[in-house]
Specification:
With 121 residues, the chain is an alpha+beta fold. Helix content is 24%, strand content 36%. The chain is elongated, with a radius of gyration of 15 Å.
Length: 121
């Protein structure tokens, strides 16, 4: 069983639920899966920018570090989307998993996902 086998319970998880549907496996296959133990860095200043990720499990802290001080910006939970676009650091606060895609692939998937949402309205 995958670490993200069940659908998320909050609205920001609709994209993750979309990706997990059997008919959308071709979209899911465009992501790489990564997992992190508690306190591991998901991103730091050396991480290449431009990739987008979806949190599949756990809890991640996004923060800035400057002159020995850390400033927490937000926490990410399953279903949340974030990108490696800034100098923010990302730390796993517990065992966590993410799906990572390049920006171009993510944009194509998001366009298809958005059209599916619009058709429901």
């Amino acid at each position: 069983m995958n670490d993200f086998a069940s659908a998320p319970k909050h609205p920001s998880g609709e994209l993750l639920a979309f990706l997990l549907r059997p008919e959308n496996q071709h979209y899911l296959s465009r992501f790489s899966r990564r997992s992190y133990k508690e306190k591991n860095l998901v991103s730091d200043r050396q991480t290449p920018m431009g990739a987008v990720f979806v949190v599949t499990s756990g809890r991640l802290r996004v923060y800035l570090s400057y002159e020995g001080r850390e400033f927490t910006l937000l926490f990410l939970h399953p279903g949340d989307v974030f990108s490696f676009h800034s100098h923010a650091m990302i730390e796993a606060k517990e065992q966590s998993g993410i799906l990572v895609a390049d920006l171009e692939s993510f944009a194509e998937i998001l366009e298809h996902f958005s059209s599916k949402l619009e058709s429901r309205i």
